[in-house]
Design brief:
The complex is a heterodimer of chains A (538) and B (306). Chain A is of the alpha/beta class and 538 residues long. Chain A folds into 2 domains: 12-266, P-loop containing nucleotide triphosphate hydrolases (Rossmann fold, 3-Layer(aba) Sandwich); 285-369 and 419-507, 3-Layer(aba) Sandwich (Rossmann fold). In chain A, 37% of the residues lie in helices and 25% in strands. Chain A contains 21 helices and 20 strands. In chain A, strand 4 (69-78) and strand 5 (81-82) form a beta hairpin. Chain B has one domain: MetI-like fold. Chain B contains 14 helices and no strands. The longest helix of chain B has 37 residues, at 89-125. Chain B is globular and about 75 Å long. The chains are: A alpha/beta (538), B mainly alpha (306). Chain A binds chain B through residues 22, 24, 51, 67-68, 70, 325-327, 346, 349, 351, 354, 358-359, 361, 363, 366-372, 380-381, 384-385, 405-407, 409-410, 412-413, 417-419, 421-422, 430, 434, 452, 455, 458-459, 462, and chain B through 1, 4-5, 8, 10, 13-15, 17-18, 20, 189-191, 193-194, 196-200, 208-209, 212-213, 303, 306.
Chain lengths: 538, 306
């Protein structure tokens, strides 16, 4: 980094910035007086939980506020001009020209009706930085620099014709096309699989270095920010907690809050005693229509333990869960629960068989009916399975709320009045209400912040011990697997690559795929990405 | 566990605890912020409803009471004069509110019951039931509904019951399409799957899981559909196959006195007489649309520019 020709004057200087957002009929502060200085060619990582104001601050660096937000105080000086004082049409001369933005969801950000190359070059042509043929030539060069396959022809495709990771790289090319002074990356790899994430990170890092572009990198993943940023700024509730150079921040954070963020990844479960299997999946084949997704899957889950199923998207993890629950009847093979064979179809299973297997979903938002209160959500399984009514039901609801560490003031709330972590706790309570023996957790923490994640994982472990529950834990996050599992199943392309005790799976020798998956998980070492790529290239 | 509780602060996580409000308190707040168009619409609907319910109290004369002088001019005795056989037009307009609006409400409700239930069933089932119902609806919608209603009423006879059933069935096709379209988006939600996994029946899933989440578009559609039903009934009455005499209704009142409009050059008030029921229809339609617009704006989640 030191080899860069850094000028002394900052590219962006934000002084005492305050931003408010409008909700519930009043203005609430979102950013409460934050300073930020970014030099040319420097990459700053902004980290914090959701609601910390990191996205708002990142957008504010471009002089932009989302609808329903306003800048109330402070200045945003970009190359000598205070963006906070400019009107929108003046700021539009900067947007897409000298400053660009890479959004989290590439799939939702592209116009599906236009070819990729036309979208990549649009702003460079609009600002007359290049003529059309030069811009297209340059775009192809950027595609090549970003390691996209067939850089000459990939631009002729439409957004739906390329994969998520490729689309994210095309968006980086789009942001780079006008050769901006500043790029704001807003969680660009959060939606990607780990193996894809490595490629995208490598491409983004190299291109930012090559053109000496300043960047703000917003994420909640510490290991990712460690690879990308020169300096890291930690935010919480709209305030700056601390800022330091990356290496210093990783090794010696000063504030307690930062230390607590760092410590989340150190959660680890002691292996449980191996008992007889409660669930056995034997030689399962399953298909959606004619498209076969599971090939001869065998998984056995010991009673009272946690078996983690890991794999990338499309590996068949969630399909396996659907087969176990009976939502997707298998084509071949059988599922034994407590020694009994479960009927294939949900309709053929008894109420009791439905009761003992419960499921917790990834998106707590969509897993709860937004029109039902917590009382109705938790109360329904009590009424349905256990015939509890009136006072008995009420008492049990309060017990369940207590189990998930929420107090009784939550009983009349709607899901929209809960935070992400609380929603997931209510979903856990709903599953517990049925008194199940076996719970399928489908990516239950992947939509949550790290600190909230830790709370949920601890809760699940405590409940397991108290109620002797068995979990099948589906996830793509290896650090979650380390934290909670006893056994690990690695899946790829609808097949089980390996199953075994956590210690065995995580220690070499690995099958090729497990090796790729494990080595792609970012570590909290700023040199990790460089070393990994050197290893892989050799 | 108590230690856990201390480290985990729920209120801290959500920030501020939301204030609880009752339905009426919320309605009052919403109303105080509503645009004047919505308030005007609500006022008009309220007045119509009161007139319809208490028609015998407000009307000076009976619905079919005949006075000696037909086509009487406007006077203190007969505010809007009398019609071709000497019935008081003002009284008939008040009774007309009861008949026309009442039948329109009943028809719209029936249309929603049929279309809504079938639409939900089609959205959940998504197999042959969906195909069967959707294609049947396509066939019904392919025929111009006013002409189809005319044909059916001529076959079955124009009684009030037939009128309600025929218009309800024809209008339920549109309700079916809307319900199916919005419900399909809700059916794929995880909470519906969770209910299926629990083993809930079709009725419970329809009523408790899906219906509450598709109410806003359905209520808006109810307002609009009501206007169309209302206009259809008025149109059918104007054509003579709708509500039959001596029952007062606005559509046939327009037809009965239509010829008076030619006397406007001699007596302006006489010329206005056939326009009065037409104006009553127009006013109610406009009022309902104002309210529906406001409601759609509220539920669409579009934030006003600050």
């Amino acid at each position: 980094m030191s080899s860069k020709n850094q000028k002394a004057d900052p590219l962006i200087q934000i002084n005492n910035l305050k931003i408010e957002g409008f909700s519930d009929e009043q203005w609430h502060p979102i950013i409460k007086g934050v300073n930020l200085t970014l030099k040319r060619g420097q990459v700053m990582g902004l980290i914090g939980e959701s609601g910390a104001g990191k996205s708002t601050l990142g957008l504010a660096a471009m002089g932009y506020t989302q609808p329903g937000c306003r800048i109330t105080d402070g200045e945003i000086i970009f190359d000598g001009t205070d963006l906070a004082q400019l009107n929108d049409s003046a700021k539009q001369q900067y947007w897409g020209n000298r400053m660009t933005y890479v959004a989290q969801s590439a799939a939702a950000s592209f116009n599906p009706a236009h070819r990729l190359i036309d979208q990549t070059t649009a702003s460079a042509i609009r600002f007359k930085i290049k003529n059309e043929s030069d811009a297209k030539k340059d775009a192809k060069r950027l595609y090549e620099a970003l390691n996209l396959p067939n850089p000459e022809s990939i631009g002729d495709r439409y957004p739906h014709q390329v994969s998520g990771g490729q689309l994210q790289r095309v968006m980086t090319a789009m942001a780079m096309s006008p050769r901006p002074d500043l790029i704001v990356f807003d969680e660009p790899t959060t939606a990607l699989d780990v193996t894809t994430q490595v490629e995208v990170l490598t491409a983004m890092k190299s291109i930012v270095e090559e053109f000496n572009t300043a960047a703000i990198y917003i994420t909640h993943d510490l290991a990712v920010v460690a690879q990308m940023a020169d300096v890291i700024k930690v935010l919480r509730y709209g305030n700056e907690i601390e800022e330091a150079e990356t290496r210093k921040m990783l090794t010696a954070p000063e504030q307690d809050y930062t230390k607590s963020l760092w410590s989340v990844r150190s959660l680890e479960k002691k292996p449980a005693k191996v008992q007889e299997p409660i669930l056995e999946i034997q030689n399962i084949d399953a298909a959606y229509g004619k498209f076969k997704v599971l090939h001869d899957v065998n998984i056995s889950v010991p009673r009272g333990s946690t078996v983690a199923v890991v794999g990338e998207s499309g590996s068949g993890k969630s399909t396996t869960a659907r087969v176990i629950t009976g939502l997707l009847p298998q084509l071949a093979g059988e599922i034994k629960f407590d020694g009994q064979i479960l009927p294939k179809r949900l309709e053929d299973r008894t109420k009791e068989q439905k009761r003992i297997i419960q499921m917790i979903y990834q998106m707590a938002d969509t897993a709860m009916n937004p029109r039902q209160t917590v009382r109705e959500i938790i109360g329904r399984p009590l009424e349905f399975y256990l015939n509890l009514k009136g006072r008995e039901k009420e008492k049990r609801i309060l017990e369940l709320l207590d189990m998930i560490e929420l107090d009784d003031q939550f009983i009349d709330r709607l899901p929209s009045e809960l935070s992400g972590g609380q929603k997931q706790r209510i979903c856990i309570a709903r599953a517990l209400a049925a008194n199940p023996k076996f719970i399928i957790c489908d990516e239950v923490t992947s939509a949550l912040d790290q600190i909230v994640q830790e709370g949920i994982l601890k809760l699940l472990m405590r409940l397991q011990k108290e109620l002797n529950l068995t979990y099948l834990f589906i996830t793509h996050d290896i650090s979650t697997v380390r934290a909670i599992s006893d056994e690990v199943v690695v899946m790829n392309l609808g097949e089980v690559v390996e199953q075994g005790l956590k210690a065995d799976v995580f220690s070499p020798p690995h099958p090729d795929y497990t090796e790729l998956l494990l080595s792609s998980v970012p570590e909290m070492d700023p040199d990790w990405l460089k070393n990994l790529n050197e290893r892989r290239n050799s | 566990m108590t230690q856990e509780k201390n480290t985990y602060s729920a209120a801290g996580e959500v920030g501020s605890v939301l204030e609880k409000r009752t339905f009426w308190a919320r309605a009052k707040i919403e109303l105080s912020k509503s645009p004047w168009t919505a308030r005007f619409g609500l006022l008009v609907i309220f007045i119509y409803a009161v007139l319809a319910i208490f028609a015998p109290i407000f009307a000076p004369y009976g619905e079919a009471e005949v006075f000696p002088e037909p086509y009487a001019a406007w006077s203190s005795e007969h505010i809007f004069g009398t019609d071709q056989i000497g019935r008081d037009i003002f009284s008939r307009m008040i009774y007309g509110a009861r008949n026309t609006v009442g039948i329109a409400v009943a028809t719209t409700l029936l249309a929603f019951l049929i279309g809504g239930a079938l639409g939900l069933a089609a959205a959940i089932n998504r197999s042959y039931i969906d195909q069967l119902l959707s294609r049947a609806v396509d066939v019904l919608m392919a025929i111009p509904s006013l002409i189809f209603a005319l044909v059916l009423l001529s076959i079955f006879g124009s009684t009030v019951t037939n009128l309600i059933i025929i218009i309800a069935v024809l209008d339920s096709t549109r309700v079916f399409r809307l319900t199916r379209a919005v419900a399909v988006n809700v059916v794929v939600m995880d909470y519906v799957e969770a209910a299926q996994l629990r083993g809930e029946g079709l009725g419970w899933i329809m009523r408790k899981e899906i219906l509450p989440n598709i109410m806003p578009p359905l209520i808006a559609e109810f307002g609009l559909r009501f206007c169309f039903v209302f206009l259809t009934i008025a149109a059918l009455s104007f054509l003579g196959v709708g509500i039959q005499p001596p029952t007062a209704d606005w559509g046939s009142m327009v037809r009965d006195n239509a010829s008076l409009i030619m006397f406007a050059q001699y007596d302006l008030k006489a010329g206005l007489t056939p326009l009065l029921p037409a104006a009553a229809i127009a006013l109610l339609t406009v009022a309902i649309n104002f309210v529906v617009d406001w409601f759609l704006h509220k539920t669409s989640g579009i934030r006003d520019e600050q």
